[in-house]
From TrEMBL, chain A:
This is Uncharacterized protein. Residues 179-199 have a biased composition (Low complexity). It comes from the Bacteria. Residues 162-199 are annotated as: Disordered.
TrEMBL record, chain B:
It comes from the Bacteria. SMART domains: BTAD. This is Transcriptional regulator. It comes from Dokdonia sinensis. Pfam families: BTAD. InterPro entries: AfsR-DnrI-RedD_regulator (IPR051677), BTAD (IPR005158), TPR-like_helical_dom_sf (IPR011990), WH-like_DNA-bd_sf (IPR036388). Residues 121-264 form the Bacterial transcriptional activator domain.
Length: 199, 267
């Protein structure tokens, strides 16, 4: 009889929001707990990178378990592909936050430089001068503005691409649905699947 | 009598008189017409899994047979489902005449759902008690206390503890735990001056569930001060600071630190 290896990993993430005033400034702290349902392991975190690393480690274990019958080389190759799930997240989010926290002024300069590539009109829309003396917590706003701008630029690029492809015919841009944002204590269950393996 | 008080009374009566009652917290037990049913009577584990699944997803109306089977057994066939369903109905209504529709587990085509007007479930009751408690908190604190106490009395432990590795139980386990942590801390806060030792007991219960629940430590410190036990209040702060440092690498919130300063100033 063939034995089926585990192919599902579920994670429960709990976020606990703490809003408080410190030296006259409003602050927000997120305390989180991520649990691996099938394995029972848990991790408390305040930095989401730690939660992502925890999830990644559990998924890697799942992949290794499912590829036990393969050669080390094949196993490494599959594991590498398995890690690609985290590639985008690992390459962008944490680096941006780390750099911002380390040197907010330098990050403002970087943002300014990036924005200048899109022209004066866009620079006017971003109140960079107001941000120069901003505290670290204000950089959350910057991050959100950048994220919104990135989306707008992507939409514009798409539009331009479409126009250049279909010109002179008329095209319409599709409106993206608004994302729902939940606040307060919330929980999320995520499941991930790896290919079925029998041995 | 306030509307909330009357709702609370009705819930308490239903808890006592419902023909079918399920305990899912700390243990899985069925009471049929007031009598505890032997767990061995369930027979196959798939029968138990099916009723536990229907309880876990009771608020999602009309669960499709295929969906249930896929979620529970992956490789289960139609026969498995039929046998488990027959087992559940047999346990809930052992004397039901053949060719009559089940009363507690309702079927519509290939969808199934529990009749919550007739079936009492502890996690469902907890949620309702806490909702009443929250709504009554400002205008009727006596009713709120009664509601929170009713909820806390039902919390006998984690949801379906023998299924902690099954993902379909996770949502309910998390939900009931967060609800009860809130109930413990709100009730404890209501009792700080009225009954400080009960307040300490409640906060200890909350800390036992989640050792990083800072609100519970803060209220416990206040209760010890109300009782005149300054050393114990200081110890509570230290424990809080140690746990937060160990688990998150952070300090307590400014409000908790300020309370420490107030306590230190008492000496």
């Amino acid at each position: 009889m063939t034995k089926k290896t585990a192919e599902t990993a579920s994670f429960m993430v709990r976020f606990n929001q703490k809003i408080y005033a410190d030296k006259g400034e409003d602050k927000v702290q997120w305390r989180g707990k991520v649990s691996h349902v099938q394995g029972g392991q848990e991790l408390n975190f305040t930095d989401f990178n730690d939660a992502a690393a925890f999830i990644q480690a559990q998924l890697a274990a799942l992949t290794l378990d499912a590829t036990q019958d393969k050669s080390t080389e094949e196993q490494e190759n599959i594991l590498k592909k398995s890690y690609s799930l985290f590639k985008t997240f690992a390459a962008t989010g944490p680096q941006f936050l780390k750099e911002t926290l380390k040197d907010p002024r330098k990050q403002v300069a970087n943002i300014q430089e990036q924005l200048s590539e899109y022209g004066e009109e866009l620079l006017e829309k971003v109140p960079l001068d107001d941000w120069r003396n901003a505290s670290k917590s204000d950089f959350q706003d910057i991050k959100e503005s950048i994220s919104a701008l990135t989306k707008s630029v992507a939409t514009l690029n798409k539009k331009v691409d479409e126009l250049s492809k279909t010109a002179p015919t008329k095209t319409t841009a599709r409106k993206a649905p608004a994302k729902k944002v939940a606040t307060g204590v919330k929980k999320t269950a995520t499941t991930a699947k790896t290919p079925k393996t029998k041995k | 009598m306030s509307d909330l008080q009357s709702q609370l009374d009705q819930l308490l009566i239903f808890q006592k008189e419902a023909p079918i009652r399920f305990q899912t917290l700390g243990n899985f037990v069925l009471w049929r017409d007031g009598e505890k049913v032997n767990s061995k009577d369930w027979g196959r584990d798939k029968t138990v899994q099916l009723i536990q699944y229907l309880i876990s997803y009771r608020q999602r109306h009309a669960l499709h047979k295929e969906h249930i089977m896929e979620h529970l057994w992956e490789e289960g066939d139609d026969r498995d489902f039929k046998v488990a369903l027959h087992g559940v109905n047999k346990m809930l209504e052992p004397d039901r005449p053949s060719r009559t529709e089940p009363m507690y587990l309702e079927r519509q085509g290939v969808t199934y759902q529990l009749n919550l007007d007739k079936v009492w479930i502890d996690v469902e009751a907890i949620e309702k008690y806490i909702t009443i408690g929250n709504e009554a908190l400002v205008d009727d604190p006596a009713c709120a206390k009664k509601a929170y106490k009713a909820a806390i009395a039902l919390y006998q432990g984690s949801y379906l503890p023998n299924r902690i590795f099954a993902d379909w139980t996770t949502e309910e386990r998390e939900k009931s735990q967060v609800l009860i942590l809130g109930a413990y801390t709100v009730l404890a806060e209501l009792l700080v001056n009225e009954n400080p030792m009960e307040c300490v007991r409640l906060t200890q219960q909350a800390i036992a569930i989640d050792p990083t629940w800072e609100d519970a430590y803060k209220i416990q410190m206040q209760a010890y001060i109300a009782k005149g036990n300054r050393p114990q209040a200081l110890k509570t702060y230290q424990k809080c600071a140690d746990v937060l440092d160990e688990e998150y690498g952070i300090e307590p919130l400014p409000a908790t630190k300020n309370l420490l300063k107030e306590i230190e100033a008492i000496g």
